[in-house]
Write a structure and sequence with these properties.
The chain is of the alpha/beta class. The protein has helices at about 1-15, 25-40, 45-60, 65-70, 70-95, 100-115, 145-170, 175-190, 195, 225-245, 270-285, 335, 380-385, 405-420, 465-490; strands at about 200-215, 255, 290-295, 300-310, 315-320, 350, 360, 365-370, 390-395, 425-430, 435, 440-445, 450-460.
């Protein structure tokens, strides 16, 4: 058992290399193959322990940026909670491994685990989904067909089919090896079909968009050091853009996007901050989507994208749907506030937004996402189904500016661009801002810790990709499959062959104790 624990620990650590900053996604199937091989023949307790070790070895390095940017406690607690989901998956996997088509059962169970942990506990944590790792691989076009969830299934299935093929190398029957190889080749081939047949949405004209990155005063990693200075910076860069437009050196934008926290003070109660926005919007002469922190009583705050029109002022608003636990609100505040001094920096809890319709910005229906929202599909799906033709991401990566979180989030944004089939415009306080095409190509991006503005003419895209429907259905299908699979695995069975279909290492009468 010790060797298996060491093996899954190495496999989990290897999986973390699939993501930024290393970003070698081809190791993901190898990692999952090793995990599946280690789980074979284990009881329930052993499966949970192996999955837990794998999850910890993956998740602690994957979100190590949280220790320095939020707090050591938050990192230890969150990564530990996430590791438990991998343990539960391992527990279930020990039963599903008994079934003849166990690679498919395990892959569906994997996407269920991802779907649950990105929603619970509290607001969940979507980082580390397999589908986020493929943006620079031939699997990327499949995101438009089956979504993040579907690609997670494909990556997992390829890994588990590889494990099955490795097991058949010891089998005496050549037919079993051939069947395993054919299954693996077949899934890979189907996964690559979108490369030749990419899904493309119809265009509806063009729009010129400007993304303003005003920078954060001081070291750049704390928006609270000089919150008014942040708004002054963004107003200044917007004024410079207006001057360049007037001089004819830059194309006139139809709309401008400011990032999350570009107003870290409530512009509706702080007259000076409000006047900075009014002045900048008037001088650029087009609507600006402003990222504003807006008070909602003494105990709560709203993180909003506010459409600020040069003629009518503040109008439609999008409120962040997925505030970050321990970063933007404190679960169990009553008990934890005294244990973690950093939580004093979050005196008010952020409320959750519910908007499902796109914002009307200069006549363009825009699906907005604020920071971590981009790692979830629900908000984007709702707005796109209601007619959004462009996606904007307002983000403040200032707290993470010296960490790998910035590039991880940008990779996630690229994956969502492919899945939605829309152009995506990202505005960040001090990096990374960018313009991303529907195929995930980065058309423009800024450096960190700089003042900059990106102006790009992009196509408005109408309709929706199959990914929106398929991706939403897969966790439900996976959950149903787990119920059926567990029921089938409970039937009496006997040891078969040496290839492992079903599991050759376990016999109901001689199985190891559940804790083995």
């Amino acid at each position: 058992m010790l060797l298996r624990l060491l093996a899954v620990a190495c496999a989990g650590a290897v999986l973390s290399l699939a993501y930024e900053p290393v970003a070698v996604p081809y190791v993901a199937p190898l990692s999952l193959a090793a995990l599946a091989l280690a789980l074979r023949g284990r009881g329930l307790g052993g499966g949970f322990l192996l999955g837990l070790v794998f999850g910890a070895a993956f998740y602690y390095p994957h979100i190590h940026w949280m220790a320095s940017s939020i707090s050591l406690f938050s990192w230890l607690a969150l990564a530990g909670i996430e590791a438990v989901f991998y343990g539960l998956w391992g527990l279930v996997a020990t039963r599903l491994l008994r079934l003849p088509a166990w690679p498919a059962w395990l892959a569906l169970a994997w996407v269920v685990a991802e779907a649950v942990r990105m929603q619970w506990p509290w607001s969940g944590m979507p980082w580390g989904r397999l589908g986020f790792a493929v943006v620079d691989t031939p699997l990327a076009p499949a995101l438009a067909y089956v979504g993040i969830n579907g690609v997670s299934v494909l990556v997992a299935l390829i890994g588990f089919l590889l494990a099955r093929l490795l097991l058949t190398l010891r089998a005496e029957a050549a037919g079993e090896r051939l069947a395993a190889a054919a299954g693996l080749v077949g899934v890979v081939a189907v996964s690559l079909v979108p490369v030749a047949l990419p899904w493309t949405l119809d265009g509806n004209g063009e729009v010129t968009v400007a993304a303003v990155q005003g920078d954060v005063p001081g070291r750049g990693n704390d928006v609270l050091v000089d919150p008014v200075g942040i708004t002054e910076n963004h107003a200044e860069v917007t004024d410079e853009l207006a001057a360049a437009v007037a001089a004819g050196t830059v194309s006139a934008p139809d709309l401008v996007v400011w990032p999350e926290n570009s107003t870290a003070r409530d512009p509706f109660t702080d007259a000076y901050v409000g006047s900075l926005i009014d002045g900048a919007v008037a001088r650029i002469g087009v609507p600006v989507l402003v990222g504003a922190m807006v008070g909602d009583g003494p105990d709560h705050v709203l993180n909003q994208g506010v459409v600020w029109d040069p003629a009518t002022g503040a109008g439609e608003r999008y409120t962040k749907r997925h505030p970050v636990a321990f970063g933007e609100y404190i679960p169990l505040r009553r008990w934890l506030a005294d244990l973690v001094p950093q939580f004093d920096r979050i005196p008010r809890d952020m409320r959750t937004g519910t908007r499902t319709t796109p914002l009307d910005v200069a006549g363009v229906p825009v699906a907005d996402a604020i920071c971590f929202d981009i790692a979830y599909e629900d908000g984007l799906t709702a707005q796109i189904r209601n007619g959004a033709e462009l996606v904007t991401v307002q983000t403040s990566n200032a707290s993470f500016i010296f960490t790998d979180q910035v590039e991880q989030q940008f990779a996630i944004t690229r994956a969502q661009a492919i899945a939605t089939g829309k152009y995506v415009v990202v505005a960040s306080t001090n990096g990374v801002s960018g313009v991303i095409a529907p195929d995930g190509e980065v058309l423009a991006r800024t450096d960190r810790l700089t003042q900059d503005v990106l102006v790009a003419t992009v196509e408005r895209r109408v309709g929706e990709t199959p990914a929106l429907a398929v991706g939403a259905a897969l966790p439900l299908l996976g959950a149903a499959s787990i119920v059926v699979g567990l029921a089938l695995s409970a039937r009496p069975y006997r040891r078969r062959g040496r290839s492992g279909d079903p599991d050759p290492a376990v016999d109901e009468r001689t199985a190891e104790p559940a804790g083995a």
